[in-house]
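Task: sequence design from structure.
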């Protein structure tokens, strides 16, 4: 059922309800399948929500910043360089920085993957090297190879990079030292923070096949094939390694059905679909498409439930190619929300939402979704609600 962005909100409600019914029962929705997938080797969106604490000694202060247009533009440039153009993450830096990274890591820099990207603000006047202590809700293992790269924009628009060797003394905690003069040079302007690592730490940087047994608490939907199937990933040498990691379609839970009803009620009362979600998620959606996107015109076309299995946190984000019930157009900007129910919530938000990058591919109309590394482990424990947005799709494009 086509939905036009200029139609009133009641028609959007009808579109949403029709879409929900279609996903529950029609044969077309039961044929949702993933065609191809790879690990991106670079975050798809900023990862500041993985930070538990970020501290510095000598009365210095570190503030973790929310994304803004400048940081999103830098990430988009890195993402394009790595994911679209096929380059290794460490090659994004200038040659001098690449040499320093090689010296600090002791490995071929092409084995390194970028797993963290966020903005920071530094304050303080240290007289000695500053001990930085960051705790992330990510399974970095003790002894894992870590290189932290911090950077500030210069007057000419280029970046000055500061790489440091990190230490992982306990799960998720990264320690590193910043010389006093370099710390002072980074106070004031916004600082970009990156983590480079290998997928299996100090064990050589080459993936090995491993099967992790996990009991699924929800069984896959009967009659529906896997929504997404990650068939392969690549070792750091380029060798293809088989693995059982997958993201699969499951039945929507009672909490999800209630959330769909709440979204429908919100739209029926005149609210734009995107405005049901927290303001920060709306802002992140806008930042993904900073030019001429009116996020309140975006329409929900698909809602499904997904789970994951056999994931290692340090794989980073996962890019997947998907076929959905709606025929998405590469001319329309897209985004997706992934949510988990908040236990005991009695008022909105009832779900903890994350904004995901989504894009319709030119060649076949399939959708590339990028799942954030932070949320995939949670998807192994409980189903996630995936809501796919797009600018309105023309009727002829959505004809099946």
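Answer:
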């Amino acid at each position: 059922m086509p939905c036009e962005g200029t139609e009133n909100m009641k028609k959007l409600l009808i579109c949403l309800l029709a879409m929900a019914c279609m996903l529950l029962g029609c044969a077309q929705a039961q044929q949702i399948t993933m065609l191809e997938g790879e690990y991106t080797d670079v975050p798809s969106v900023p990862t500041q929500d993985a930070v538990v604490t970020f501290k510095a000694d000598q009365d210095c202060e570190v503030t973790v910043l929310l994304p803004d247009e400048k940081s999103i533009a830098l990430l988009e440039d890195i993402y394009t360089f790595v994911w679209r153009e096929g380059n290794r993450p460490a090659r994004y830096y200038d040659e001098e920085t690449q040499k320093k990274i090689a010296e600090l890591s002791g490995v071929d820099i092409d084995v390194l993957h970028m797993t963290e990207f966020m903005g920071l603000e530094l304050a303080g006047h240290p007289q000695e090297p500053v001990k930085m202590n960051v705790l992330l809700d990510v399974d970095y293992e003790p002894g894992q190879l870590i290189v932290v790269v911090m950077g500030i924009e210069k007057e000419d628009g280029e970046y000055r990079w500061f790489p440091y060797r990190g230490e992982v003394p306990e799960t998720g905690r990264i320690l590193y030292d910043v010389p006093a003069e370099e710390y002072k040079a980074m106070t004031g302007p916004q600082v970009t923070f990156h983590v480079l690592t290998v997928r299996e730490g100090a064990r050589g940087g080459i993936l090995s096949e491993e099967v992790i047994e996990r009991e699924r608490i929800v069984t896959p939907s009967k009659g529906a094939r896997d929504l997404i199937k990650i068939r392969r990933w690549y070792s750091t040498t380029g060798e293809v390694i088989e693995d059982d990691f997958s993201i699969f379609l499951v039945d929507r839970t009672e909490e999800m059905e209630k959330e769909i009803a709440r979204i429908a009620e919100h739209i029926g009362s005149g609210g734009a679909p995107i405005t049901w979600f927290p303001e920060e998620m709306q802002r992140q959606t806008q930042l993904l498409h900073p030019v001429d996107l009116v996020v309140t015109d975006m329409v929900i076309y698909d809602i499904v439930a997904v789970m994951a299995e056999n994931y290692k946190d340090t794989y980073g984000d996962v890019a997947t190619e998907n076929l959905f019930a709606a025929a998405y157009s590469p001319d329309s900007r897209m985004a997706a929300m992934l949510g988990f129910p908040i236990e005991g919530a009695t008022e909105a938000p009832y779900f903890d939402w994350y904004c995901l990058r989504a894009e319709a591919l030119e060649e076949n109309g399939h959708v590339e979704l990028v799942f954030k590394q932070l949320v995939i482990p949670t998807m192994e424990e409980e189903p996630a609600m995936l809501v796919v947005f797009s600018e309105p799709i023309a009727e002829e494009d959505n004809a099946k």
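The CA atoms of residues 95 and 101 lie 10 Å apart.
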